[in-house]
Amino acid sequence: MRQEFLTYGIPLIEEDDIAEVVDSLKSNWITKGPKTNEFEKQFAEYVGAKFAIAVNSCTAGLHLALVAAGLGAGDEVITTPMTFAASANVILHTGATPVFADIDPVTMNIDVDQVRQKITPRTKAIIPVHMAGHPCEMDEIMELARENNLFVLEDAAHAVYTKYKGRLIGTIGDATAFSFYATKNLATGEGGMVTTNNEALADKIRIMSSHGMSRNAWNRYSAAGSWYYEILHPGFKYNMTDIQAALGITQLAKLERMQGIRQEIAERYNEEFSQMPELEIPPEKEYARHAWHLYILKLNLEKLTIDRAEFIEELKQEQIGTSVHFIPVPMHPYYRDTFGYQKGDFPQAEKTFERIISLPLYPKMSRQDAEDVVDAVKRIVEKFRK
Ligand SMILES: *Cc1c(COP(=O)(O)O)cnc(C)c1O
């Protein structure tokens, strides 16, 4: 057994990352400035989008995209129950109502047939979430959205490297929001990016990300700028800083290498865990390039004498940190009480929730760390199989 506890998730920060941040600190531009502009340009090129707007979180990006799309009171937005609360909270922030459509239990992504059933005359948008880094069935979602005139906002918090049918996530929906939170595949501490090919939408998002102001600080205070600005809307304070963008630039440059390590660890886990009938490994559909943000193991509980909570406790005894992604949003007290959700309303999400464990998976892990996870999981399964 391991001597030291294996932390569930940590970023890979190297000398180049540190040097770029120090360069920001020495440059006098510590908030949004040249590095943020450069990171936006590089990120847009990377995903192949016409526009990219850097923000201080994915949550801010999701919120801005909904505001820019004109969402508000009386509107309904469909999303998945199997996501982080932010995907639904932002709907409420606009005054609109979140409506949940149950998941496909295999991919854990939103089930397009369930979305179809939840569409009403008030439905204005869909927020699909590319769970764990596995893409949603975007062709089907886009077709349904076009038929019903719905805005599609992709929550790509897990999907910075994900491809759907050979195409990088970032240009399929009307807008896409990425997260650069500390544990995500590309980490700037806090941070996010919205990409879109729609110029009018990009302009609105950009203006709303900085108080609704007609000119941002870089334009105003640089040599090319002027002191004059106008407030066009009551906007938000959601911009990225150059300290974050410094990390964004160096992290994007090493994304391919970091993804290679994630892929290797995920393949090693798959190789071992696919041998055990007590476990179900994460799927990779033929249309997917998985970004392996999360490695979500599903327990076949009927073949085990312990439940998921006990399995997590056993892993902890083995010095392995884990997490659970996610507690279905409608099960949280606010959502449950406000919307009156009951057990059984989202049967697939609820059943899946009972059997999932996210294992450590990040580029800072060593091969030995991954072997320790494999050995621990195997020991627990052997001890508690029926
Ligand atoms: C992390 C996460 C977010 C929020 O990202 P932030 O950058 O922390 O705001 C949104 N959606 C999902 C699915 C996430 O995992």
UniProtKB/TrEMBL annotation:
<dbReference type="GO" id="GO:0030170">
    <property type="term" value="F:pyridoxal phosphate binding"/>
</dbReference>
<keyword id="KW-0032">Aminotransferase</keyword>
<dbReference type="Pfam" id="PF01041">
    <property type="entry name" value="DegT_DnrJ_EryC1"/>
</dbReference>
<protein>
    <submittedName>
        <fullName>UDP-4-keto-6-deoxy-N-acetylglucosamine 4-aminotransferase</fullName>
    </submittedName>
</protein>
<comment type="similarity">
    <text>Belongs to the DegT/DnrJ/EryC1 family.</text>
</comment>
<dbReference type="GO" id="GO:0008483">
    <property type="term" value="F:transaminase activity"/>
</dbReference>
<dbReference type="InterPro" id="IPR015422">
    <property type="entry name" value="PyrdxlP-dep_Trfase_small"/>
</dbReference>
<dbReference type="InterPro" id="IPR015421">
    <property type="entry name" value="PyrdxlP-dep_Trfase_major"/>
</dbReference>
<feature type="modified residue" description="N6-(pyridoxal phosphate)lysine">
    <location>
        <position position="184"/>
    </location>
</feature>
<dbReference type="GO" id="GO:0000271">
    <property type="term" value="P:polysaccharide biosynthetic process"/>
</dbReference>
<dbReference type="InterPro" id="IPR000653">
    <property type="entry name" value="DegT/StrS_aminotransferase"/>
</dbReference>
<keyword id="KW-0808">Transferase</keyword>
<keyword id="KW-0663">Pyridoxal phosphate</keyword>
<dbReference type="InterPro" id="IPR015424">
    <property type="entry name" value="PyrdxlP-dep_Trfase"/>
</dbReference>
<feature type="active site" description="Proton acceptor">
    <location>
        <position position="184"/>
    </location>
</feature>
<dbReference type="InterPro" id="IPR020026">
    <property type="entry name" value="PseC"/>
</dbReference>
